[in-house]
Amino acid sequence: MPFELKLAGQTHEGELAFGVAWPRSGRDSPGFGWSVDASTALKLLEAIKDGHLEAEQAQQILTDLISQAGELVDESRRIDWAYARCFGDCDLCMRRKAKYEGYVAKYSAWAQAWEAAGASPDRYPFAMTKSTVHRSDCGIVTPAPYSLQHKPIDLRTFAHIEGDVMVGALPSTRHETHVWMSERTGPKGGRNYRLCKTCSPEIDDGR
Ligand SMILES: [Zn+2]
Ligand SMILES: [Zn+2]
Fold first, then answer.
1. pLDDT digits 0-9 by tens, 138-163
2. From the CA of 78, how far away is ligand 2's center (Å)?
């Protein structure tokens, strides 16, 4: 956001920006989230040094600029200030930390399992979602290669934005698949699971 200042009889053109830098140490200070170009800062200091401006006036100039521009930002973007001021250390993050650690453990188990499945697909022929058995090469369950390279999201994103993060289906050996199916089979043989219609997994009886 460009602006003009009259300083010592001269017009100075400056630039105010929002959301470029969020320095942690400034999170409780007025002006957090805002950046002013360095030439403006130097001009203001120079004007103070040369006696054209009082320090309070310079402070007021910046405060006014930010509050005028701030109204525009408030209208156009709804800022989640709790998130902006958090560096993974707020009360919400602390409350969700144990859950987050569970997610990280699940995530790395998931990524490792798919890497193992990629290395020896014959060992892991199947993959189950909550209630469906797939072949492990079914497009519905196979993670895209890049998603295995990703790191789990950070605590701050987990706590403030993502809420509950689901980790996808795990590839399974023949034996694990049979155990899973028998756990979901009633005493009279009723099945509490489905076989995917897209990949039609062929499962023997496990013997
Ligand atoms: Zn937080
Ligand atoms: Zn499938």
1. 988 888 777 777 778 889 999 998 77
2. 41
Quote the pTM value. 0.66
Domain ranges of the chain: 2-79, 91-195
CA of 90 to the centre of ligand 1 (A): 4
Ligand number nearest to the C-alpha of 194: 2
Sign of the Cα torsion 43, 44, 50, 52 reads: positive
- Which tokens in the block code for residue 135? 């072949």
DSSP 119: H
From the CA of 201, the nearest ligand is 2
Count Cα atoms within 13 angstroms, Cβ side, for 24: 5
Instruction: Say if CB 174 and CB 125 are below 8 A apart.
Output: yes
133 CA → ligand 1 middle, Å: 38
CA of 170 to the centre of ligand 2 (A): 13
At 66-88, the pLDDT tens digits run 998 888 887 777 888 889 999 99
Residue pair 4/11 in contact (Cβ under 8 Å)? The answer is yes
Between CA 194 and CA 88 the distance in angstroms is: 41
CA of 158 to the centre of ligand 2 (A): 29
Whole-angstrom Cα distance, residue 192 to residue 184?
5
